[in-house]
Amino acid sequence: MDMLRGRLINKIDDILAQIVSQETPLNSQLQIEANLVLPQDSTGLTRRVVLDSIDIDDLRHQVASHSGSPLTGTPYHAQHAFNMSHGLPSPMNTITSESTPYPPVEHTMLDAPHPAPANTLLSSQPVLPDTGSNANNFYPILPAEVEQTPPTTPPVGGGRQVEGDDRTFPKRRKQDNANSHKMEQSTIDKLIEGIWEQIHNPKSLAMGDDLKETMQWVLEKMSGQTSRFATTNLEFSNATKCCRQITTSSRTARAFEVIVQAHWIDCYNARLAALREDRAELRPQEHKKIVLTEACTSFSWSEKELRNRMAIWKGYREIKDAAGWSALIFAGPGIYRFCKYRLGFDEDAMNKLRSLKLRAEVAADTLQPQWRQLLSLVGESTQIHWRGHPHDWAVSKKKGEDPVPLAVTYKKWDPNFTYQNLEDSVIDTDQWGETDPRRFEGGPEHYCKSCSLRQSSIAEENECECFPNLYSPNPRTPTPVQVFRTDNGKNNGLIACCAFERGQAVGEFVGKLTKGLADVDVMQSQAGDHEPYQIWQGRCGNFTRFMNHSCASNCQFQTFSWLGVQRIVVVSKGVQAGKELTVDYSGRYWDNLDKVCLCGEPCCRYKDRRKLASV
Ligand SMILES: C[S@@+](CC[C@H](N)C(=O)[O-])C[C@H]1O[C@@H](n2cnc3c(N)ncnc32)[C@H](O)[C@@H]1O
Fold it and tell me: How far is the CA of 600 from the centre of ligand 1 (A)?
């Protein structure tokens, strides 16, 4: 029954999502029927059973009033629990095919305090029309489907400079019909994205507390409560902490469960193989029967019950064999459904999982190394394999290809390459002393220049939610991105492990705050009418340093002010999980740069540089 119910729910959910996104006349009804087809040797009749009828307008109204609609890409199943009984939805500088990334050109400090903006990366500048520096030169970001090739920025100064745009950043998509024909993510893609989310969530695996300790802790927290339900602020906060604690411990327990169950399948197979050798006189079916009986006795389950569970556990083992232990451990509750119904459990899915294996291990080892301790339960090595910062490794999208230490990927240009990962920009005190060149003048109160709401580092006082994943009083969680080896001559690039919704911040362009650099890649910016500054990422910064240029980029640089300090934010224009994250470096970057663009887009503006130079 469970399986039937699951299949029906999925089917009906999909139909409902389609209907809601289509035009239907007012007062349309969706009638749900089933046909009971009796065998020919019986009556030969088909009996129609009307199960229920749904008012489409009501349905559409409910979906629209819901905070996340299926049209925004949130899994429909997660939003509406369909009640079956009631029927209503409750690199560079040479013209070659291979570019050199961040060439080991010695950077020169210019004497002039306001250096010529040579070779600067300009954020979002390419989307500006060629009409000078007037603030009204607004080139709007259109929805992805209708976005046009932006006009080329005229040559200004040198090249290799990027800038942040202080106008608009991509807004979250309206819940209109623009997405109505969007394909739903496949089950495997949902599972994979779930794995990435869990790996990048520092709270997903708590180690060391056993259940008894957790219960004791919960009881202590609850002891002073005035009623069974938390009513005061403190009581509610305690209840929330208890709930979080239990949820985290049960997630850990769940990880224990899946690895032990997957391992048990290997034990079962080993026992079967041993029996085949010891009792060669028996037929294969008899060997199987003996082992099943042994297992049923120990589990105290019927054979049917055991077989049902084994079917799911075999799924866990298949996932472990394809994607490795780390993916299995971080898969989360979605894995049960995936294995139970084996929806999309095909060769294509298995190949996706195989190419995920080493990438997931790097992320798990560097972000949540305690995951390895769980492996002692199944006799596997608990040795951490990939050490350091997650972005100290350049991973491969191809299955079986080992991640490479970042420094190795720059060896041919710079044998001594090092990169220091920074959370926040650092001030080049030789240039700026202790003064942050990004700071605007102002009082203790800060209001967002974009949404006009109050910004504060105190949770209760902050109202600005422009980029909550970067700027909010809550601690930041690691961004689900990886540095990867590109296969078209661009050396490294940045890959999105999870989707980034349009308008969502991917990360802040973080590096050394300096000035006067020439002939190296820099971000050029200016806070108000203060002296311009540069952000240099040559040897220190964050993952934004690895974003390649595309003439049809899926992200853009934007200036944003948080607590009176200007930031350069990489904002998504809508990026799917598994895609390379790209920005448009702009004409100013490419000017005088003897490299060709390898973005491969039909609208590429910098692919034929030889031709340009001869004009
Ligand atoms: C900010 S770095 C990006 C990361 C770089 N690919 C790496 O491996 O370090 C910029 C350099 O990457 C390379 N690059 C980025 N986008 C490119 C493109 N579309 N075509 C060719 N090379 C590109 C160029 O060498 C460029 O100077």
Answer: 13
The reply to whether 327 and 429 lie within a common domain is no
Residue 160 belongs to a domain: no
Listed range (158-162, 561-565, 604-608) with the worst mean pLDDT: 158-162
Residue 306 shares a structural domain with residue 435: no
pLDDT in tens, 33-69: 666 655 544 444 445 544 555 656 555 655 554 433 3
Ligand 1, pocket-test mutation among 486, 549, 586, most atoms within 8 A of CB = 549
Total number of domains in the chain? 3
Which residues does ligand 1 sit against, CB inside 6 Å? 91-92, 99-102, 490-493, 521, 545-546, 548-550, 595, 597-599
What whole-number distance in Å separates Cα of residue 456 and Cα of residue 460? 8
Residue 419 CB-half CA count within 13 A: 31
Q: What is the ipTM of this complex?
A: 1.00
Domain ranges, residue 582: 424-475+501-614
Mutate to test the pocket of ligand 1, among 410, 490, 550 (most ligand atoms within 8 A of CB): 490
Cα 356 to middle of ligand 1, angstroms = 24
Q: Please answer whether residues 560 and 567 qualify as being in contact, where contact means their C-beta atoms are separated by less than 8 angstroms.
A: yes
Contact call for residues 502 and 71 (beta carbons, < 8 A) = no
- When comparing pLDDT for 593 and 360, which is higher? 360
- Dist CA 205 CA 252 (whole Å): 5
DSSP 328: H
pLDDT at 444: 83
174 belongs to a structural domain:
no
Between residues 5 and 103, the one the model is more confident about? 5
Provide CB contacts within 8 A for 66, sequence distance 6+. 79, 80
